[in-house]
Every structure is written in structure tokens, then in C-alpha cells.
Design a protein that fits this description.
It contains twelve helices and 16 strands. The chain is of the alpha/beta class. Strand 1 and strand 2 form a beta hairpin.
Length: about 375
Amino acid sequence: MSSKLLGSLLGGISEVFDKDDTAVGVDVGSNSIKVVSLKRKGEKIVLDNYAVVRSEDKLLNLANPGVINDLAGVVAKQALEAAGIKEKKVNVATPSFTSLVVTIEVPKMPEEQFEEAVRKEVSKYIPVSIEDVVYDWQVINEDVLQSNEKAITPEERQKLQNQSNSVKILVIAIIKEISARYNKVFRDNGLELNLLEIDSISLARALAGPEGEISLILDIGHETCNVIISSREGLLLNRTIDVGGDTITRKIAETLGVDFAEAERLKIEKGLHLVDSKSGKNISLEPVIKIVDELKRTLKIFEEDFQRLKVKEVYLTGGSAAMIGLKDFLEKELNLPVLVANPLRGIAFAPEVEEALLKHAPLLTIAIGLALANFEK
């Protein structure tokens, strides 16, 4: 399987997805679905429409990774209809925790031998037969990434590649049964999967910085946090943290004795400034410290694996990205600049929807990244 297909073949739906003037991304969360429609008009990518539809039922059963509920297809169809999106071919993301994301290191060899080397290595990490998964891979050129900070000729870049005795390869594998399940859920509701990829790839695509710039993306979901280190050339590291936005909300509800909806409101409005009047403790801080500890561990792992590469900044996205005080706290703890992600940079949209759209932007990052896949060269 060619490394150039990474992100466009995971799930085995289609080897070459359509590249036309309209693209739709569908992000299936644990209790909400986000859809985005983008159109290409000349040299511009334009936001056609979007919708966020929430459900009290779980759309993705997190106790059984990859088991997407039939409800997800129904809600996705409703979301598309609510947004007036008529396109039936959609790009969909599966959570990264449903797949294997691992970096392997192999001796330097001719490129045509990589496939067999990857196949042997990936079989060591998966709990099922290699025949039951679809996998993809890409070579990580550390020297190229390092040299992207300065202008070099193609000849100099090739020389850097030739100096290394080993090669790092990012491998992503997903069980075929999971991709088949996604395909069926959407097909049963009159929709066709144009693309199925892990959400980490969608996030990295939506938030890709300048060439050579390495970023950490913290995507705070309802039940988990997705932590990604990536460059414009692709993923470098991906981890899942078993703490999410709902962890913070439940902590607030339990401490203050309020219902979940009220706790969610307090989380967003007060954030890290929410103090328990009885104990004097910051209620939101404990779960956030757990996230920070895992981020520090992730950065340490990255520095050990990629000793010459440095993370330049942190992008904060997901439903809890707007928590008051979170950005400043992360900057202080990580000693890195932290930016609330804006996946809409480079995308045109009507001025009259700017206020509402920017409010929803962190929620739409994965869906936007999915739709942008159709416009990749």
C-alpha cells in the first residue's frame, strides 16, 4: 500500500475519492454530529453551510471502540437536511482510539522493500490477523523536517535523507470490520462514504501550519482528549487521554450538587475560575491537571523519539476549548504558546455568519479537515 494514500484509504472504502467542487465532512462524536459543506470557487475554498446536531443518546459507544450506532446515520442525515446540504457522498472520521497509530523504525532499504518490512512490524502490534486490518504508512523524514526551517535545494534535501542509517515510519491500522460498520450505517440512510479516515488526520489537515512547523494539537472531546503532534508533512505522534470535557463537567456537578446541564454552563462560563465556596478549591483544576500531566508525558516521548525536532506551539480545539483560563494555564504549564484553533483560516464565508461561526469553529475542526481532503492536490 503506497504511503501517499495515508488518510485517503483508511477503512478501505475507496482507493481514489472524488475530487470535485463540493465536499462534505461528517464528524461523529459521542453525543453530537457536526457537518460541514465546502465548495471550491476558482482559487477559493468557500464554506457553503454547516450544522451541529446533538443527541441525548450516545452516537458512538465508547465502551466498545469503533461500534458506531445506527442512530449516527439517522442523525447525520438529519444534520445534512437541517443545513440544506444535498450532497450524498460524505467524508467521515473514526476516532483514533479505534485504530493503531504507531511509529516503527526499520533499517534503511530500497523503497520497494518498505511494504514487506512494514507488514512484518505491524503484525507485532495488532491483536488480530494482519488479514483482518487495512493499514497505511508514511515515511517520516526527520532531516527533511529539520531542514524545512531554512531554505535548501532539493539536492541538499536528498543528501540529508541519504545520511541516515534507519528510517522512521508512521503506521496506521484499522480493523476491516469497523470500516464495514461505518459504511453500512451511512449506506442505510442513503449516504455514501467517499472517505473514511481517523480523526487525527482530519485535525492535522485542518490546522496545518507553515512548512516545517511542528505543532501539538489538543482536541478535547466529551469522553477523551486526542493529542496529536504533526507537521504539514503528516502525523508524528498520536495518543488518547481518558479524560475529556465531560470529566470536568461531572466533577463540577458532583462538587456543587447541580445537574449536568448547569455544570456544563458553569464550566464554560467560569472555567478554571470556578471555586468551591466550601473548600476554597478550584473545581475544574483537578481534571485539567491530569490532561496537562499527559501532555507533558507526550512531549517527553516525542523529544526522546525525535531528538532534533521541537514543538513550536499548541493548538486547542474541541467542545471545551473555550473554557475560561484554560489557554493561559496550558501556556504556563507547558511553556509553549497556546492558540485556540481556527480551522476557518483560508476559508471564505459570509460576513453575516461570522460571530456564530467563530463560536462554533473549535467544534467544527474535524469536519472541516475531512471536507478539505477533497481539495488536496
